[in-house]
Amino acid sequence: MKNMLVLTSGGDSSGMNSYLKSLTKLCRDNDIKLLASRYGFRGLIENDIIELDFDKMDFVENLGGSIIKSSRCLEFMQDDGFNKALKTLKEHDVQCVVVVGGNGSFKGARDLKNAGVNVIAIPGTVDNDLAYSDLSLGFETACQSAVELINIIRQTMETFDRGFIVEVMGRDCADIALYTSIITNADICITEDMQNDEILNCVKNIIKSGNESPLVVVKENLLDIDELANNLSKQTGKTFRAIKVGYAQRGGEPTNSDKMLAIELACATVKKFLNGEFGIAIGKNNDKIISKDISVVTTQRRLYSQRLYDLYNDYFSKKSC
Fold first, then answer.
1. Which domains does the chain have, with CATH numbers?
2. SS3 for 274?
3. Hey, CA dihedral for 76, 272, 259, 145, is it positive or negative?
4. What's the rounded Cα separation, in Å, for the pair 245 and 247?
5. What is the chain's alpha carbon radius of gyration, rounded to the nearest angstrom?
6. Distance from C-alpha of 141 to C-alpha of 256, rounded to nearest angstrom
7. Does residue 236 contact residue 203 with C-beta atoms inside 8 Å?
8. CB-side neighbour CA atoms (13 Å) of 36
9. Active site residues
10. 164-221 residue pLDDT tens
């Protein structure tokens, strides 16, 4: 029997558990023993390895997070920790390591490949910042969570004629901000550095047009939204509230789209494993499952989806700011 090992690394994303369950089923059906490293790369260093059993995974596809845990492991980047990880893989006779995560996790997979380990990488990050794939596990769920939260908050904001600023996740990628702004018909979407005076003028124009409850969506890591809310309140005479979506975007039941993507990625993983195709990252592009060299994809980052960016500009082409 061949041995495959899977780990989830870095930030969690809804869809990871769906992928794990689908992969476990397919490995069972194809006579592959599926091991898991708990807490990501840390489990390789500490030899914290378990075997996944499909019969014990009832309904985990409906859960956010990762049942095999995750972490950010700096020790794996050091020679001593990395060598311990290699020793663990050899001890368990692992023929392939499947890494589910984002760009940092992919770099760990690349390092394993360079050390002679067979690896397959799977995109699991709400940021959707892996340039080679249109979608990553958890992105659509994160967007849905942000939209639902905005729609709930909006009811109170409109009752009191208050403006509100919502910061969404995405790290250096604007995809969640763009997607959320389009769906919620946000008045302003801030995805790059923007001067306070420019924001203020836009908001004043929006209020002047008759909108008593302006919505401003902001990508994280750009500005202090509490400071912006205070400034807009003072300059416009209208109360503004600042809300961070935060971790609410990373949890929750995956959307059906994320569950389906998880199944597609699991099917592709087992096919590649059985065909002996390693050193790759599997993804989805133009509605087709694709694979790319892991060494290439780790050099690429996406700042935004061109499709979402163009759609946003087309949809809001008549805005006053």
1. 2-138+254-300 (3.40.50.450), 139-250 (3.40.50.460)
2. helix
3. positive
4. 7
5. 22
6. 9
7. yes
8. 24
9. 127
10. 999 999 999 999 999 999 999 999 999 998 888 999 999 999 999 999 999 999 999 9
